[in-house]
Every structure is written in structure tokens, then in C-alpha cells.
Amino acid sequence: MSARRRSGPKSAPARRGTPERRDKIVEMWKAVPEPAPPEPIRRAADPTAVLRSLGPPPLPGQGPTAEQELARVALRASQLATGLAQHTGLLLPDSDDD
Q1: φ, ψ (nearest 5 deg) of residue 11
Q2: Which residues on neighbouring strands pair with residue 91, listed in sequence order?
Q3: What's the pTM?
Q4: How many Cβ atoms sit within 10 Å of the Cβ of residue 8?
Q5: d(C-alpha 34, C-alpha 28), whole Å
Q6: What is the C-alpha to C-alpha distance for residues 63 and 54, in angstroms, rounded to an integer?
Q7: Which of 4, 17, 36, 94 is most deeply buried (CB count within 10 A of its CB)?
Q8: CA-to-CA distance for 98 and 81, rounded, in angstroms?
């Protein structure tokens, strides 16, 4: 087989699509404005609603077991988030309107 030969000047090839630029220097440790206080949160009525809205997990042969385990994780995450919100005073009291 014969090797392909490049046509044109013998100089180094120019980079296409990448204009010569200098990297911007970013000041990583500069002062930032104080964030706004967090909004109070309400306990989730059904922490698994979003998971169920996505349909069954795509795990062949694991259908009901996978759904149960994912629901268990969502419930535990909801419990931890609720406990943290309560500890920090951000949890709104439960309302009977739901």
C-alpha cells in the first residue's frame, strides 16, 4: 500500500476551529454575596410519586423488587430531609388541607 501524501506547504498544520486564545484567570477565592435565607419546606405527601411517574425501572427480571428498593431509598431520603429541615427550623407544620 502506498502512503497518502499531503498537498500544500510543508509547515506545521494549522489548528482548525480553535483560534489562539489565552485562558482567563479566574479568581477562585473572591468574596461572594451572602445567599438569601432558604424558604421553609413542607413534608412530601408522597415521596415516591416522581419515581412512579417514570414507569417501571428498566431492570429485566427485577421489576417488583427494583421498584420496592427504589421506593425504599426515596422514602429514606425524604425522612432524612424532613429531619434535617425540622432540626434547622425550616419545616412547615403539616396541614390537613392536603
Answers
A1: -75, 170
A2: 41
A3: 0.59
A4: 6
A5: 16
A6: 13
A7: 94
A8: 20
